[in-house]
Amino acid sequence: MKLWGGRFTKETNQLVHNFNSSISFDQKFYRQDIMGSIAHATMLAKQGIISEDEKKLIVDGLTNIMEDIENGTLEITGEYEDIHSFVESKLIERIGDTGKKLHTGRSRNDQVALDMKLYIRDEIETLDNLLKKLMLTLHRIMKENTETFMPGFTHLQKAQPVTLAHHMGAYFEMFKRDRQRLDDIKKRMNLSPLGSGALAGTTYPLDRNFCASLLGFDGPSLNSMDAVSDRDYLIELLSSLSTIMMHLSRFSEEIIIWNSNEYQFIDLDDAYSTGSSIMPQKKNPDIAELVRGKTGRVYGALISLLTTMKGLPLAYNKDMQEDKELTFDAIDTVKGCLALFDGMLSTMKFSKKVMEESASKGFINATDAADYLVNKGVPFRDAHSIIGRLVLTCIDKGLSLDQLPLEDYKAISPVFDNDIYEAISLTSCVNKRSTLGAPGKEAMEKVIALNEEYLLNN
Ligand code: ARG
């Protein structure tokens, strides 16, 4: 079962085996391990290091192993140290001595670096698709809600009116950047470590370019010591995953607030909420809370790997085996959160009337009232103070700015006229905000068209 028994005279202590072994988790990339071995064997034959017949035997053997794992006839079991040992042992078991030639010019150090890169490349693809799906949902909500008014907040205090389209658009931008970050990682990491050996390359005449192109890399890595000990791309990935979770967590927080009895901006679908075992009236936003909660776990993975790497001398050290469980867990967590979040978002109902009513209370149009005066020649600082005093009058009388009679306006400044009401109506407050990126309908429609184009091309 061991690839390295030769210089040992004793059996490994069972606890040492358990502690050392990674097969319980690195079996996750059996497919990538086999694909890497097929490419390596193909290259060995092209270079005349093994014969064409030997290559065929090896490639067929590896293909069968992959099929058998996939159809459940071959079980990956714990007595092997790692997935690399498992596949190689099975190959030798199945095709005999020729199988022993597969590892020529290769070390598990470049092999594991390769497997992890191949695995991450595939997972980035899946993560990207999930992000895109979520963006498509946001895009649909945006198109349907360019005239759904709601309060915009700062300090969680009503600030200025926006629309639901505009609010969703903020998250559209965040997830767009998340996708760009993932894409950047893919570009930077896409160099093949195969051929780096244990740390110092190999004496066989390998064709590293050939292997790299067989496996879809942009080329081979340029320093064998770096190639076997580089985990930067995992740190970048965990950092990007942390940022995705931070975005999802902020969004979750808003959904939890919007779902509260006090706000009632949204109604979560029954299929995406849960109840209480004691309080019959409850309908809880557990999905949003769990997404918010799982954010800490993904941040933890990032800090954990950074800490693992910080003291490691070149080149490979076994510490690096610790990169796997936490990376796999972080990826699976983010994939789950993205899928669930999309389900929750695409099924929730927005209570447009409640949102709009909320936007028309709370003096959300006070800035616009000040701007009205500025347009009539009053300096902004004076206008600010005048409206401040009007707000006090409103609070006194229990009215909103829209409801305050013109006499009250005129009592504080003669500049006011009947057109104040039109100037501070919710519709004009929003639609006058027409700078690109603002919530006004026209500006919003330009952005929605750009988003449409983005989604078509990316
Ligand atoms: N399981 C190991 C890891 O995940 C594979 C590399 C083992 N290399 C070694 N020299 N022991 O890092």
From TrEMBL:
EC number(s) given by UniProt: 4.3.2.1
GO molecular function: argininosuccinate lyase activity
Biological process (GO), any one: L-arginine biosynthetic process via ornithine
Key words, A-Z: Amino-acid biosynthesis, Arginine biosynthesis, Cytoplasm, Lyase
Domain Argininosuccinate lyase C-terminal span(s) in chain numbering: 363-431
Pathway: Amino-acid biosynthesis; L-arginine biosynthesis; L-arginine from L-ornithine and carbamoyl phosphate: step 3/3
Compartments, record wording: Cytoplasm
Enzyme class: lyase
Coiled coil, from the record: none
Main localization category: cytoplasm
Domain (Fumarate lyase N-terminal) ranges: 6-300
Catalysed reactions, as listed in the record: 2-(N(omega)-L-arginino)succinate = fumarate + L-arginine
A GO cellular-component term linked to this record: cytosol
HAMAP family: Arg_succ_lyase (MF_00006)
PANTHER family per record: ARGININOSUCCINATE LYASE
Similarity comment: Belongs to the lyase 1 family. Argininosuccinate lyase subfamily.
NCBIfam families: argH
UniProt-recorded name of the protein: Argininosuccinate lyase
